[in-house]
Automatic annotation (TrEMBL):
One of its GO terms (cellular component) is cytosol. Homodimer. Keywords: ATP-binding, Ligase, Magnesium, Metal-binding, Nucleotide-binding, Purine biosynthesis, Transferase. The gene is purT_1. GO terms for molecular function: ATP binding; magnesium ion binding; phosphoribosylglycinamide formyltransferase 2 activity; phosphoribosylglycinamide formyltransferase activity. This is Formate-dependent phosphoribosylglycinamide formyltransferase. Residues 111-300 form the ATP-grasp domain.
Length: 393
């Protein structure tokens, strides 16, 4: 076989699928891994392995079997000490084993950002027992946001507004806890004007940024995103400086999704993913290079001479509302006919084998060539609403 870059992708969701397409276009061979067969990235990869990313022995066996040039995590929940072990033995983990370790748990990245780098964050305390939780809430004050340190997509996360709600919030977080650490973070609630993701790419030639992406979250999961987010040049510069400090600390090459809250001119660091970000799916329509293309280029050591915008753009998610294995998706014909002239729309249907309440099954994308972000947002929402899920049986 010709010598090509071999990638082991750990996690094979919709972000992984777009990444596989991007890196395969640059000539890579990809083995896509996830806990279930037929995952979105497996549909477009060269080979697949089915195992839990939290199963250390299975993860090590997959690395041994495929001897990849690049180990590329697509999810947060991975047996990261195995990644560290393989990095120590000369394998390349994207962006770095340290980045995966520090971002898998909220408390670790918070210590890097707030304590080591001195970035502004919400005030916070940790709790491992109900008594500690009550003390943490008393110290932080109400309202506050409670999250398991190891969780994603809003799982186990809640906002506590009254003292009565503290015990239930702890129980909910404990139940939403992923992995083996029973610890929650209690954060002061930030009454932000808006929140953004700053896609930050660490390359051999330095750190580059995409224009800020605005997004709206519900239940801790993103509903729509748009680019560019209206933000002052000074606020963008502040966010870029913080993002650069964090990604330089974490090391390695690749794209990071750095999240900030913005209140007036104040920019507050929230968290980050050392990989493409779900809200960054808007770049599938907004930019010359998508976030997946940028990740691929950065990790292959290829240049990124310019990131250019096609115009104000938006994405809107297409969600399921129940558990089903027998379902179909229709309405693409209507979805792909925008009612507003001068707008391009597109969709990505992820082909996940089963649905769950709120499971993301696709995304609608819109580009308002001559309009503004509000037109793009309305067009993306309209397209998403026209895609219909039908459940059978
Ligand atoms: N301290 C906070 N104050 C206000 N809103 C918050 C706070 N923390 C989280 N949120 C809201 O919840 C969303 C999800 O929280 P986040 O910490 O990003 O968790 P996840 O890892 O699940 O994305 C954020 O995008 C924001 O909308
Ligand atoms: Mg987040």
């Amino acid at each position: 076989m010709a010598s090509v870059t071999k990638v082991l992708l750990l996690g094979s969701g919709e972000l992984g699928r777009e990444f596989v397409i991007s890196i395969k276009r640059l000539g890579a061979y990809v083995v896509a891994c996830d806990a279930y067969a037929g995952a979105p990235a497996m549909q477009v990869a060269d080979a697949a392995e089915v195992f839990s990313m939290l199963d250390g022995a299975a993860l090590a066996a997959a690395i041994d079997k495929h001897a990849p040039d690049l180990i590329v995590p697509e999810v947060e929940a991975i047996r990261t000490e195995v990644l560290k072990d393989y990095e120590d033995r000369g394998f390349t983990v994207v962006p770095s084993a340290r980045a995966t370790i520090m971002t898998m748990n909220r408390d670790r990245i918070r210590e890097v950002a707030a304590t080591e780098l001195g970035l502004p964050t919400s005030s916070y305390r940790y709790a491992e027992t109900l008594a500690e939780m009550r003390a943490a809430v008393a110290a932080i004050g109400l309202p506050c946001v409670v999250k398991p340190v190891m969780s994603s997509s809003g799982k186990g996360q809640s906002t506590v507004r009254t003292t009565d709600a503290v015990d239930a919030a702890f129980a909910y977080a404990a139940q939403g806890m992923r992995g083996d650490r029973k610890r929650v973070i209690v954060e002061s609630f930030i009454p932000f004007d808006y929140e953004i993701t700053l896609l930050t790419i660490r390359t051999r030639d330095g750190v580059v940024f995409c224009p800020p992406i605005g997004h709206r979250q519900e239940r801790g999961d993103y509903q729509e995103s748009w680019q560019p987010a209206a933000m002052s040049a000074a606020a963008i510069a502040a966010a870029e400086a913080m993002a650069k400090a964090v990604v330089d600390n974490l090391g390695g090459y690749g794209l990071f999704g750095v999240e900030f809250f913005v209140k007036g001119e104040e920019v507050i660091f929230s968290e980050l993913s050392p990989r493409p970000h779900d809200t960054g799916m808007v770049t599938l329509i907004s930019q010359n290079l998508t976030e997946f293309d940028l990740h691929a280029r950065a990790i292959l050591g290829l240049p990124i001479p310019a990131i250019t915008q096609h115009g104000p753009s938006a994405s809107a998610v297409i969600l399921a509302d129940r558990d089903a294995a027998d379902f179909s998706i229709s309405g693409l014909d209507a979805a792909l006919r925008p009612s507003v002239p001068g707008v391009d729309v597109d969709v990505r249907i992820f082909n996940k084998p089963t649905t769950r309440p709120y499971r993301r099954m696709g995304v609608a994308l819109a580009l308002a060539r001559a309009g503004d972000v509000d037109i793009a947002r309305a067009a993306a929402r309209e397209a998403a609403a026209k895609v219909a899920l039908s459940y059978h049986g």
